Each structure stands twice: as structure tokens, then as C-alpha cells.
Known about the structure:
By secondary structure, this protein is mainly β. The protein has one domain: YVTN repeat-like/Quinoprotein amine dehydrogenase (Methylamine Dehydrogenase, Chain H), CATH 2.130.10.10. The chain is 0% helix and 56% strand. The strands form 4 sheets. A 4-stranded antiparallel sheet has the order 4-5-6-7, with no helix packed on it. The protein has a 4-stranded antiparallel sheet with strand order 8-9-10-11, with no helix packed on it. Strands 12-13-14-15 form a 4-stranded antiparallel sheet, with no helix packed on it. Strand 13 (127-132) and strand 14 (137-141) form a beta hairpin.
Amino acid sequence: IVVTGSDDHLWKMWTLPNGNILMTGEGHTDWLSGCCFRPSGTQMVTSSGDTTVRIWDLSRRGCILTLKGHARAVLDCSWHSQGDFVASASMDSTSKIWDVNSERCRYTLRGHKDSVNSIEFLPFSSTVLTSSADKTLSLWDSRTVSRLF
């Protein structure tokens, strides 16, 4: 299975190798920039140019949560290995750590001087890696919102 997002505001789930479409998700109002499966495989998170992050329940075939808080397009998203937190990276020069259970932003990571282009939780850790158009990489402790490097 592979998931793609595109300029048509949709994500599509495809089977490999035959290329059949299993599922399509609509709800974003601008291009999709990223998607990541929850470790359990039951949900997915997407990021979009519409400034939102959406959580999708794959068994219900729909969006169950829209996270709002970024001022500009969201360029990437990542799911923590334990499944309770999602991270997002935005053109507004910030990253956010979202608590999926409480449905709110837990922390905003500030420090990059330009767009944050990618974000990834290190496996089984509270450490987050971000990369930015300011030509820097940063490691963050998502529990204390402090930059490690």
C-alpha cells in the first residue's frame, strides 16, 4: 500500500503492484504536502497548504480531526511511535507538537528563521528533527520544547 497527496486537494491510497485505488480522502482546501500512518496503521495524518493538519480514520474512511494553528502552509507531518502525538512543520517558521487525545497543540517549536520544511520524530524517543529553508537542522526535546542542537 502507498498513499499519495497532490495539488488536487486529495490523498489516495493505492495497492501495489497492481495500482488499484483503495481509498480517497477529501477535505483539505489546498494542496497536500505530507502524510504519515499512525504506527498502529488505523489512522493517518496529512498536512496541507490550507494551513491545517488532519487526522483520518481509515476504517471510517474520513477525517475525524482538523488541527488548526499554523499561520501559513503546513509542509510536513509525522506521527510519534507511540501514537499519541503528531508533529507538523510550516512555512510560518514554526513546528507544532499536537496531542491527538486532547485535540490541541501541546507545544510550538520556535527558532528557525525561515520555513520549516520537514519534521520527524526519532523512533521511540521524545526527540524531534526539523530541517529549514534557513539551511539548518535542529534536534528538539518535545517534552521541554528546548533545542538540543
